[in-house]
Amino acid sequence: MHKKSKTLFILIEMLKKNYQKTLLLFSFFFLTLSSSFAQNQNNQNEIDFGTLTGSVQTDFRYYVEDSVIGAAVPLEKIGFNNYFTLNYERGNFRAGVRYETYLPALLGYPSSMRGTGIARRYMGYTLKGLDVTVGNLYEQFGSGMILRAQEDRFIGIDNSIDGLRVKYDFNGKARATGIIGRQRNGFAIDETNTFGKQNRMSTGVVRGLDLELYLHEIFKPKLTEEEKENQIPVLNPLSVTLAGSFVSKYEDYLGTIDYINRNVDAYSARLFLNKGGFSTNVEYVHKASDPSKVNGFIDKTGTGFLMNMQYSRPRLGISLSAKRIDNLDFRSERTAIDNVYYINFVPANTKQHTYRLLTLYPYAVQMLGEWGFQAELIYSLKRGSKLGGKYGTSIALNFATARNLDKKQVTTDEGYTAEFFAIGDKTYYQDFNVEINKKISKKWKTIFTYVYLEYDKDQIEGRTGFGLVKSHTVVADVQYKHSSKLAFRSEIQHLATEQDQGNWLYGLLETTIKSKFSFYLSNEMNYVGTGANKPKAKHYYDFGASYVKGASRFGLSYGRQRAGLLCVGGICRIVPASSGLSFSLTSTF
Asked: Which whole-number Å values give the CA distances from 362 to 48, 326, 350, 377, 407, in the listed order?
């Protein structure tokens, strides 16, 4: 056999015998090849060996015991999360790996995030509209209500699909995506090979197909070259996209419940319209009966409805959204709980607060049932007017609410029924926001915020005895830019409530020098009203500094972290109270 043919035969046999090992070998081969030759590229006449990029992230915390805030110390006394990513591209080929270590994980991260291993490895190739990728994949169909594989380190989620994805673009008129594989959940303890610990994959297999039709391109009239030259461009043309998705999971079942199916199918349809300053998108999802530990193993279908509308014109923006979720918890393992093995993602249509005290009560989407509404208006006052001032003023009003479904309990295996337009009388979450953003001068800028918020702590956090927490919060954010090399920022926040832990006061001072050095000092104080018998206030102080050098950022801080929920887009994790020294490093190359 010819030497080249023999080599090709060996590679094919390797692929047949061990796909994962071969995938990693190929990835490291191309990454090493790129790294070896990249230094020799001194002019454009040399051979193109591709591009190697990557990133490093380290989050370290040394914990100390703090009885004042109830902070305990883990046995190891530290939390140590590390992520190292390499990506290689050459022509139509791409490959990459991500190596992670949790030695152990920071407090509050899922128990599955432990140990060391290859968290992601992939290879892909594109050719004339065709895109094929194998390995750990991230993908989203529509808003994600039917499928979203994502990574979010902040809340400890990585539900990548390990398998195959094929995409095809039909000359800009349509796009199809197909995907199949199993989902990741941390690292297994008892499975090792040459490359370290392997991911603990779901027992269920996820299969999905998505098709998008760009109707404005499909029905666009064909023009001759002369007509194209003489055609007057249309400002803000109409765009219409019609799409549909199919997602199915297969999971074996050997139990005794006769209505549990090994295959669970879900379908979705969506429509997107955009014309000038107006846009709207509507999506509907239907999921077959999917008995699980989360829903109590009931024999009931699931549905999801989402509508977003936006209108904008100079100095004015309006947005409206509505969402209905009914039994839409969709996972690749029916016994899974917490934030693992989620096939889908339901976005929260509430305002995503960033100010510290407003993160005390973040909303977590209720996957088993909710009605949600949100309305927002942003108006910019005219510059030079009496109210607008010399530099202009903008006002933002936002209202959001999430309510329960009007469920009727039944004695059958279905568990309950709920009419589509029937909204329950229980408020899970509701807030009203007013934000005034005003630039006083070239150096001074202010943001004033008021928020009234209602938060069902028992429902959202799975607790008892708290009920509906009602709070009023005011925020003053003042920024002063002395020069291009020196800037200051301060925040004063106050949250008042008669429920839960009582009132909170927060203050922050921050200085930035030459856009490289940053220093901050903050204190978050929890106190309960006034009176002789009031408990002693708790202070959650924090101070630190950061330094930016090129594409790298170093951070060092010491302080206290209050217990509570950390949320992104409606997905949350509970973190315990902690106290200690933290170090962080992020760098890209």
From this structure: 49, 21, 9, 21, 25
- Residue 394: what residue type? S
Q: For residue 421, which of 456, 371, 352, 458 has the smallest C-alpha distance? A: 371
- SS3 label, residue 3: helix
Summarised one tens digit per residue, pLDDT across range 30-78 is 444 444 444 444 455 577 889 999 999 999 999 999 999 999 899 999 9
Q: What is the 3-state secondary structure (H, E, C) of 483-504?
A: ECCEEEEEEEEEEEECCCCCEE
pLDDT grade for 246, boundaries at 50, 70 and 90: very high
Tokens of 495: 């949250």
* Residue environment code for 255-281, b if the CB has 16+ CB neighbours within 10 A, otherwise e: eeeeebeeebebebebebbbeeeebeb
164 phi and psi, to 5 degrees? Answer: -130, 140
Q: What letters, b where the CB count within 10 A reaches 16 and e where it falls short, cover 392-430?
A: bbbebebbbbbbbbbbeeeeeeebbebeeeebeeeebbb
Helix (H, G, I), strand (E, B) or coil at 40: coil
Q: Supply 162's token pair.
A: 């390990």
Q: Does 245 have pLDDT greater than 90?
A: yes
For 366-377, write each residue's pLDDT tens digit. Answer: 999 999 999 999
**Cα distances (angstroms) measured from residue 436 to each of 378, 445, 454, 496:** 10, 11, 22, 20
User: Which residue has better confidence, 221 or 433?
Assistant: 433
Q: How deeply is 97 buried, as exposed, middle or buried, from its count of CB atoms within 10 A (0-12, 13-18, 19+)?
A: buried
Query: What does the alpha-carbon distance between residue 264 and residue 515 come to, in Å, rounded to a whole number?
Result: 52
User: Secondary structure of 257-272 in the HEC alphabet?
Assistant: CCCCCCEEEEEEEEEE
Q: Is the pTM of this model over 0.90?
A: no
SS (H, E, C) 174-204: EEEEEEEEEEEEEEEEEEEECCEEEEEECCC
Count the Cβ atoms, other than its own, within 10 Å of residue 459: 20
Beta strands in 202-301 (DSSP E): 205-214, 239-250, 263-275, 278-287
CA–CA distance, 117 with 199 (Å, rounded to integer)? 8
3 burial type by CB count under 10 A (0-12 exposed, 13-18 middle, 19+ buried): exposed
- The pLDDT tens digits for 179-192 are 999 998 877 544 44
In sequence order, the β-bridge partners of residue 152 are 157
- Residue in this structure with the two tokens 């400002």, named with its chain if needed: 235
User: What is the reported pLDDT for 42?
Assistant: 47
**DSSP E strands: which ranges in 382-527?**
393-409, 416-439, 444-456, 468-483, 486-497, 503-513, 517-527
Which uninterrupted H or E stretch holds 548?
strand 538-549
Displacement of CA 222 from its chain's centroid (Å) = 41
**Number of helices and strands in the chain (H, E):** 5, 31
CB 261 within 8 A of CB 289: yes
